[in-house]
Amino acid sequence: MRTQVVSTLLRSRPVLASRVAPRLARSSSSAHHQETFESFTERYVTFFQSAEDLFEVQRGLNNCFAHDLVPAPAVVESALRASRRVNDFATAVRIFEGIKEKVENKAQYQAYLDELKPVREELGIDTKEELFSS
Amino acid sequence: MHATAALRIVRRGLATAAAHPPHAAAASAASTTTVSAASAIPLSNVEAQWASLSSSEQATVHQQLEELQQKDWKTLSHAEKKAAYYVAFGPHGPRTPVSPPGTTVKVVAGVGVLIGTAGLIYGGIRSVAPPPPKTITKEWEEAANERAKELKINPITGISSDGYSGKGFVTHK
To answer: Which Gene3D superfamilies match (chain B) (predicted)?
Structure first.
């Protein structure tokens, strides 16, 4: 009974704080968090390390390759290892196809291929050109 | 509760079996034949025959490849790798190209043939056309100029005016 009275009193009390117009916590457009390339790389490396099934890996690849940047070799390597983990060779080949689409010229693609040569040889991944050239 | 559910399932099974007895037998026979045929699908030439495979055969190929890809990828043969890539990301299903290969050549050739035909028609018509009128010559036009000056045509701003520098009736270079 007493608590009820107290609560009704509290409710009827004028709240001074809310009379002031609330200030926006942030301004409209320029306040978006800009992710750095390093944190992007780190985010996707951890994502692919924890991806558990093929759908998850392919979803991650879709998101990762949708940005206006070429994923770092570290991301590609963890994606390749993820596709090895979920036993999908085709996705591993597809990753290189995606890189070829994203880079600006052939020299950059070749640089990626050279950089990732150890992983490719370790996992036995061929690129699409190697598969369908002969 | 469980017993009645089981009974219902059994009854439905019996009912369907009674309704389509020859069908069911045929279906089971067909499935066994496809399985035996599907187990013999060679992966070396999947690209060529993929379109002609039935959906159950395609499913079998999928299964085969799934098992293959669990092995070490270095031990896979070139053909197996190709098949794995083709089945997953090859140009079939939603990845079928909008226009089949060779379309560009066809379009270019077709447009070339049309332009050539139009040129032939133009040339043919021109070859049987009468010569241009005798008034469209430089001599005729100069004579027309002289005649205009003689008759003092357009004396204020035109051909017979003082200090006229235009060409008059001459249109030939």
So the answer is: Cytochrome c oxidase subunit IV (1.10.442.10)
The two three-digit tokens of residue A109, written as one number? 């693609």
Q: What angle do the packed helices A73-85 and A106-115 form, to 10 degrees? A: 60
* Residue-level pLDDT at A23: 58
Mean pLDDT of B37-53: 76
In this structure, the number of other CB atoms found within 10 A of the CB of residue A90 comes to 21
Is residue A16 in some structural domain?
no
Evaluate if residue B158 carries a pLDDT over 60: yes
Using a CB-CB distance cutoff of 8 angstroms, which residues of chain A are in contact with residue B89? 90, 93-94, 97
The number of residues making up chain A comes to 134
**pLDDT higher than 50, residue B35:** no
Query: Is residue A107 one of the residues assigned to a domain?
Result: yes
- Could you give the dihedral angle defined by the CA atoms of residues A134, B79, B84 and A74, in that order, rounded to the nearest 10 degrees? -60
- H or E stretch at B123: helix B103-128
In this predicted structure, the answer to whether residue A4 has a pLDDT above a threshold of 70 is: no
Q: Which residue of B has its CA nearest to A97?
A: B89
Q: What φ, ψ does residue A131 adopt, rounded to 5°? A: -70, -40
B28 Cα to chain A: minimum distance (Å)? 32
Cβ-defined contact of A88 to B82 (cutoff 8 Å): no
Residues of chain A with pLDDT > 90, as a percent, come to 69
Helices assigned H by DSSP within chain A: 2-12, 37-50, 54-64, 73-85, 89-102, 106-115, 117-123, 128-132
Q: Do B88 and A90 touch (CB under 8 A)?
A: yes
Domain that holds residue A72: 35-124
Examine the pLDDT at B19 and tell me if it is beyond 90.
no
Is A104 contained in some domain?
A: yes
Structure tokens at B5: 């559910």
> Contacts of residue B88 in chain A, CB cutoff 8 Å?
88, 90-91, 94
Nearest CA in chain B to A121: B74
What does the domain layout of chain B look like in residue ranges?
2-95, 99-129, 132-173
